């Protein structure tokens, strides 16, 4: 589709092509009411590209990559500034300006759930929060800086304290949504997916992207093909899961969610054609079943020269160390070990936990949390021991060998991508190179129509708006 590369930029006539059918369109055919709250960011140069034309029954949020947490303004590097807050295609800055956006979107989501109570149609609700993305270029805002500074005073870095405050509001949002589902008797017939979209930008090297996130102990950050940039975090909960108290080491690609959720909603996956995604619903439901995915293309960013591909336990990586916005050598971010609070009870007493454990004994939840924490500590201290021995704020030592030739990593045994195994396994390198080349041969050139002066907000009463409707 040409959607690889840099995230879509304001005023560029790029986006998911209209011939592509999106998840909400499929679910609406199955009888679902489809709602989107928050970020869209897959094209808006004309109305046909916006949410209500692409399967959603309603949308309250913004079209671009980010907006200010309290002013609904999107600003880009060319000093173009404009409002970006829409309700079903209509401008609605008065619903946002002066309020904290995470709370605004939370209230909207809870209202949707409450108003849906008693409906005979099922609900698909996608909440795409701004948090913890920067709200303006290089700027994060917590709900209340004074409260944040006090609550997270054990965090020495003030930028990290702000980040914690932003994440705290996101935690509150998740709690409010789960409580609303419980109060309306919808929780016991729901599937909840909580997922990150990519690794976080850390505090180095780009001020423009910095929000002091941490992917520790993984190598790399947002826009990198290393694990810190692409190994996302996700949690799935549903009473339909036969053993929800487990962690998964299987591969799942973002494209898998469409057939997976379509299957869960009762759709016939055999009717879906020409998809890269695989149906993982049975793998999620039944403990002990095998993931249907054993390989995935991480990315091919041809303009920069970065690519990576995975098959079984092996990952082949090639990067360009002099490319702009390159984060491939990063290894930084706090480990979280400075948190001396009783995190076990904080989790167990959270709003989400209280709602879920009405159907699951507290003791089971406690044991599960302890087990997961032990697994995480094992990963950090055993599999990534060599990386953790270095300073947490030190980039990967020396020149990156993956710029000269592709590196091969066993990401099951070495998730921090410390040991290049290419010389020891040349046949694996050849196999993965061939797989990469088969994908590269079908690559569609990265979309980039450039900034269209006709999109300037000053031409649209100070708004970022679909600017090609009349063309």
Question: What is the global morphology?
Answer: globular
Query: What is the structural class?
Result: alpha+beta
Low-confidence stretches: 390-394
Distance linking N and C termini: 23 Å
The biggest sheet, with number of strands, parallel, antiparallel or mixed sense and barrel status, is: 5 strands, mixed
Helical run tally: 12
Question: Percent of residues in helical segments?
Answer: 25-40%
Strand content range: 5-15%
> Whole-number average pLDDT?
87
Spatial sequence of strands, sheet with the most strands:
6-5-2-1-7
Q: H/E series, N to C?
A: HEEEEEEHEHHEHEHHEEEHHHHEH
Let me know the number of strands.
13
> Whole-number radius of gyration?
22 Å
Characteristic terms for this protein:
471 residues; alpha+beta; five-stranded mixed β-sheet; four-stranded antiparallel β-sheet; 13 strands
Compact summary:
The chain has 471 residues and is an alpha+beta fold. The protein has 12 helices and 13 strands.
Please explain how this structure is put together.
- The protein is of the alpha+beta class.
- The chain has 12 helices and 13 strands.
- Strands 6-5-2-1-7 form a 5-stranded mixed β-sheet, with helices on both faces.
- Strand 10 and strand 11 (306-311) form a beta hairpin.
- The two termini are 23 Å apart.
